Each structure stands twice: as structure tokens, then as C-alpha cells.
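tool_call: predict_structure(chain=1)
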Amino acid sequence: MRSRRLLPALVAGLAVSTAAVAQDVPLSRVPIPKPAPVQSSAGAMAPATLPPEPAAGKLLPAPLQADPGAETPTAHPADRAYGAFQRGLYVTAVKLAEPLANLGDPVAQTLLGEIYSRGLGVRQDETIAARWYEAAAKAGSAEGQFRFALLLIDGKVVGQDLAKARDLMKTAADAGIPLAAYNYAQMLIQASPVGGFTEARPYFETAARAGVADAQYAMSQIHAYGKGVPAPNLAKAREWLQAAALGGHDIAQIELGIWMINGKGGPADASEGARWLLRAAGRGNPIAMNRIAHLYKDGIGVAADKAEAAKWSVLAKRADNTDNALESFFRSLDESTQKAALEAANRFRAS
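tool_result:
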């Protein structure tokens, strides 16, 4: 089960998405085309967010640990299996976890679900993983409830059941699983696109404060557009944009760069804004490539540089995000500069 990430469904719900980015940049001095909004398929829930595949020890909640000050410290039965998993001894982890899982231990069941879903030391088998996640969910494991809810939403390994998924996602969210809180917030908004923000906001905020970049971006949009809060607050929106940008959210990096260039939600800082846009462009984001080309062309936040502007113009065009101003700019350059830009673009590799 390969992990995958999701831009918040909130984006489409607010009609913000990447199209909104184009409305601000740069300082209305250049025409910027509006890219299409990010949307899920009509009538369908956007794919559920599976967490990234972090290093061992970050994926599953640690088993209950003994209190060092207790008179009779005890370890959770699945500690040895979990320890083997953390060390990469997956076959050993399976051997240690299976007897406990068969006896109903939810930590061992969740651990086996993860091992089989990713094929760690065993043949990958999502059906077996689903059975263990379901067992863990029934046994009260919040992580198991979250994982099984994702499968119920996806509907490929088990039959789709959105009502059951929503109940499990809420339970996992209330138990403190940040990604469950984020996904449950999205489900609330999909169920009620107009009124769902009030109920969803605390779940988004819980996930955001736990470091989920998508939730941090969602909070920025909530405060920017006054959804689920008393009124818009651009200063708070910018704070959440910065948190999401620091977390690697490329759309947040683009919007933060634009906001900083234009002084939206806080002091203007064109050079810092340009750095955020350049960071997103360096990762291969087509929108950022277009913006950076304009910044170098017009000397906004960076020193004007025709060669750099031409390079990013070529890259933006290859990513289907060019515009008439960039096309005219490139055609106005001499042949040697155009050739150098093409060669520089050919050497570019997204980081």
C-alpha cells in the first residue's frame, strides 16, 4: 500500500486552490494566467490521505510504556514485536506479533496490518492487512480505526462504506490521531460545504498544531476567507501559510511568497517572498516556475536577470504554464541568450 498525499478538499470547497494565487502576483504589474483549480472528481470524495512512510518508530503509536517510578513496572505484550519492527527485523516482528494478534492484542494487530500493507519482510498483501486493521479497529486501536477508515473510503480492498468510515475517522480523530482529524474535517465539509466549516475547524486546527502541513494550509484558508471563524484574519492566515510552507506544502510556499511580495497579512518582504517562490519552483511546481520567470524579468525581490528569467520561462512553458508576457519576453531576446536559456533549462532537475 503505497502512501499518498492529498491537497485539502477544503481548497475546492473555498474555490481558492491554485487559481487564487494568480490574483495577487506580482503587484498587478504583469498578466498572470489562472491555472485550473484542484478538485476531486464530481460527486466523489477526494482520495483519503495516507500518511507518508516515515522512519521506523514514527509510523505507529508506541506501545504503552512502564512508568519508571511505578513499583511494579510492566511492559506491553507487543513491545518486543514493535522493537523488532523499529530495528527493521520485520520477519521477527511478524513472528512475535502474530500470536498476540490472534489473541486480540490491538497493538500487534495494527503492527501486522502495517507490515502486510507495505510488504515488509513478507509478501505484500493488502487483503491480509485489511483484516488486521479491521480487527485492530474493533479492538479499539485508534491507529487501526484510522487505517481501516481509509480502506473503507478507498473501497478497493474492502467494500466502500463512507458512513462507517466517517464514524471510525471521528473516533480516531478524537483519540488524537492528527491525520484522522484532518481527514474527518474534510469529510465534515464535504457533507456540508456551507456550514461544515464551523465543526471542521477544530479538527483542522488539531491536525495543524500537530504539524500536518495540509491542515496548516487549510487553516490559512479558513482565516483568509472567514470560514468557520467570526471574521477573516489575514495575519493569522499568513502565520498558518508560513507553517505549511515550512512543512513543504508547495501551494502554501507559492501563496506565502505572493503575500510577502504584496505585503498581505503582514509586512512586505519581496526578497523573502521571492525565496519562497524559488523554493517551490526548484521542486518543479509549474505555477512557481511561471512566477519566478516574471520576478527575474521585472526585478521583483531579485535582481533583474534576463538569462534566469528566460530559463524559468522555458521551464514554465514545458510545464504548460506560460503566458503571453513571457512568450513575448523570450522572443525579444537575442539568439545566444535564448540558446543559453534552453541549455540551462535542460540541465534543471527538480529537487
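agent: The chain is about 60% helix and 0% strand. Proceeding to next step.
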